[in-house]
Amino acid sequence: MTNTLTTWRLHWQRRLQGWHRTLDDLLPWRADRLALWLALIGLVLVLLGTLVWLAGRYEASQVQAELERDTQDAVSDLRTALARDVQALQGVQSTPASERSRQEALQALLRDKREWLRVEQRDPQWQLLDAEDSPLRAPTFNRTSRDENLNEMVRSCLRARQFNGPAYSGSYYLPMSDGLGMEVMELCMPQMANGRLSGYLVLVYSLQELLVERLGHTFARRNMVSFTEADGTRLAMAGTDRRGQRLFTAQQLLDLPGNTLVLRMDGRRSAPDLFPNVLTALVTAMSIALITVVVLLVRDSRRRLKAERELADALAFRKAMENSLVTGLRARDREGRITYVNPAFCEMVGFEASELIGQSAPMPYWPPEMVGEYQQRQAIRLAGNTPPREGYESVFMRKDGTHFPVLIIEAPLIGAHGEQAGWMSAILDISEQRRVEELSRASQERLQATARLATVGEMASLLSHELNQPLAAIASYANGSLNLLDTPGPGGETLSDVHMALRRIAEQAGRAGRVINSVHDFVRRRDQARESVAPQVLLDAIAPLVSLQARKLGVQVRTELAPDLPPVVCDRTMVEQVLLNLARNGMQAMDRPECRQRLLVLQVRRAASNAHQSWLEFSVADQGSGIDPAVAEQLFTPFFTTKAEGMGLGLSLCRTVIEQHGGHLEHGPNRPAGTIFRFNLPTPSSRPNACVAA
Question: Which residue has the higher pLDDT, 15 or 256?
Fold first, then answer.
């Protein structure tokens, strides 16, 4: 028996110790659960209280909105009633001019409208001609009281005359014989006869009766309706002051010609009876709310864990992306302080991130000689005066003092709330790009040098072309002379033919020498020997070469010379070369399939002259496709050409030749199609002035 008791005691001791350990483990969890449930219950109670309060506010707003609508409707009804009164008075005015008929019409209106106290007929000087009092009450005015309140009536009639329509007076208090009084208002209507003012019709209103008659059957039963002044002073009121726990008030302006009244409507309502509705749904609402909150908490916990995992992945991805970028990234706040740099930027400038974050102007990577310029540029950027996402070049300095060029692309840094938090910059090291550009520039210079050498070759080709003709002629004449000397014949004829051949040989040798000297002087830019040459001679000199190319390209050539043209003073060889170059360009411009009419016109005429200078104008016109405006800007630029085989020197040399003669070379569109080149040359009478100008 003793052993059994000992066994049971040990068993329960172990069980109790296990329960204690379990309770110790569960206590923190239970405390958390209790705190969570208390928070949930408090949240539900706050929610219910908020709903009750919002329901009360909603009921009150509904009552207030209804009162506002009633006030607007009341003002609309008053406007309608007053407009009908004006129509009624206008109907009285249009009644046939019979004293009795008008009096009967006014009496009928006074019996029908209790708010009408009196209707008066007055002359243009406001003197009383006739008056009708309401038969429903004792006469309101006597002579003394009417004279005392005449000013309001006069002012309303003045306004009526000014507006040429009805006008209302301001309200005023009219004492009565029984010691009481009332607030009245007057309506004045001008009466016209044959386009001239013949008098006034004055209607006196009782504001009290106006409210009772026009609003008493609708709005005054539920509310207190009154006319008030701007400061809240009541002028007249209608309705009963009903009992209630809360007062609702609405006001609306009644704008009348010449007067403005404030219509006020007061309504008392008891507090909205909310508790029956709330108690009916309270248990259901609390249960649904608790279940909903628990479900939401579970879902929120799962979403939070998922969001934390996604955030960790995003942070890891961002870190990996930042470390792998070769583009420098830099973030600055609105004051220009650095808030973030990536490893690529730190490697670019040679500074650690801790040395850069928090730094403001001047930055440690700015060259000292450019600090002022960079500070001004940063101030403009931070002020938002430069377009975003527009790259600009700059120069940074590494920690070891070396300079390197960078390209900065900057854009606004938008925060989570959609507001600009600063600026984000992407920085590219363009040192390698600059090195490539320098290599490209050196290559371009070498190409230009090669082009100049090609120009020298072209000059040599030109010389060989120009010299081939006189040398061929010399050879031909020399062979002819030898043949004449070898062939026996009459002595006089043989000597004459040999003499002529030798003279031709001398002429062609002189021509070859002139070609060499002209090109040599042109290259060295010396003044060429000039002579007087007729325009026809210049055109005849290039005619064979022009005709040869014209036949090849299918171009018709036409020359037009004005009558009685004087000679020009020029270097004949170089001017012939200018004309030949322009003619060739014109024919090549028409060597296109779309050019149906291929006509080249060489024209010479007198140019505009003055008392000291006389000029001739030479023009070469083609009917090609014209010159593009972008090409026209660089047309005379050396080494600029649109031809695959051209060197871009022709027009530049032509302009130089003409300018050395004191003239100028220009171009323009030819009508209906093509381009026309013009240049002018001096005549012998203007040669001294032309030399001075050159």
Answer: 256
